Amino acid sequence: MPSNANKPKPRTKLMTQAKHIADAEETFFVKAITPDFCCVGKAIVPFMPYRELSHEKTGFSTKVLARDRKILLVQSIVQGVKSNAGKGLKSGVSRAAGNVKVVNGHQGLFVEGRVVSRHGDLCEMNGKA
């Protein structure tokens, strides 16, 4: 019977616990850290918008890939948001009209001359970008 002593140990750290490069994989997403208050009819309702990173609008890397996907850079824009049903009080937009804009990244890591975004870096949610 073969020994399991040389068998690699499974990764014990979840992907969300480590700083990793933000790329356009379908399983990665951005989520709000504070509610987005929206007008729904005559009511003001708080929503927690989110969006998968695979929905590129503009500004992702064009030549450099991470895990076979484009990389999100500062100023990249992800098309649309999910989880809101009315216009944002400040932005005036929602759903497909409300985009995600990457606003910061790792100041020592550049791709195609721009700062790379990683897990945990801040984005603007539900904006007109």
Features of this protein?
129 residues; 13 strands; three-stranded antiparallel beta sheet; mainly beta; Tumour Suppressor Smad4; single chain
Overview of the molecule:
With about 130 residues, the chain is an all-beta fold. It has one domain (about 20-125): Tumour Suppressor Smad4 (Sandwich), CATH 2.60.200. Helices cover about 0% and strands about 35% of the residues. The chain has strands at about 30, 35-40, 45, 50, 55-60, 65, 70, 75-80, 85-90, 100, 105-110, 115, 125. It has a four-stranded antiparallel beta sheet with strand order 5-8-10-13, with no helix packed on it. A three-stranded antiparallel beta sheet has the order 3-2-9, with no helix packed on it. A two-stranded antiparallel sheet has the order 1-4. A hairpin with a 2-residue loop joins strand 6 (about 65) and strand 7 (about 70).
Q: Mind describing the biggest β-sheet?
A: 4 strands, antiparallel
Strand order of the largest sheet: 5-8-10-13
Number of domains: 1
Name the helix and strand elements from N-terminus to C-terminus, one letter apiece: EEEEEEEEEEEEE
- What is the tally of beta strands? 13
The residue ranges in which pLDDT falls below 50 over 5 or more consecutive positions are 7-15
Could you report the average pLDDT, rounded to the nearest whole number? 85
Radius of gyration over all CA atoms, rounded: 18 Å
Residues in helix, %: under 10%
Strand content: 25-35%
- Class by SSE composition: mainly beta
- CATH level-3 fold name: Tumour Suppressor Smad4
CATH architecture: Sandwich
